[in-house]
Amino acid sequence: MITAPHLHAMVVHFPIALLMTGFLSELIALFSKRQFFKNASFYLLVLGTLGAVAAYASGSYAGDGMTDGILQEPLELHEDAALVTLLLAIITALFSAAMYFFNYQKAWAKWASFLLFAVLVGYVARTGYLGGQLVFKHGAGIELALPDFGAQPKE
Asked: How many domains does the chain have?
């Protein structure tokens, strides 16, 4: 059966990959001036933002019941970083969408969009790192399948 932690683990990698690739495309577009990379960056940002919404929602359910004891502080750090990441993704996507659909080409807006995207990618990395710490350092969401030492061997 798929539990909330399993679902979160499956969903969370999409916004990470989409937003990181979108930023790389934005960086290439900045230096190459090719419209293809600018368009790819925009669509990857939009898809990554939608993925961030799904990751945040699934993470909210995955964290239920893990707020006691040793997991409380690292879980809160991860949740706070995830909220900032989600808000930055939405703001960056809306700003980029306004520029894209209104064909606004002022230099200050291009740089503002690029800087927003850069900060977003930094927060994506921070959130992913903190999530990795939860799993690999603290064992959050891990189900141990220990052998039953009292069981009789099959013949």
From this structure: 1
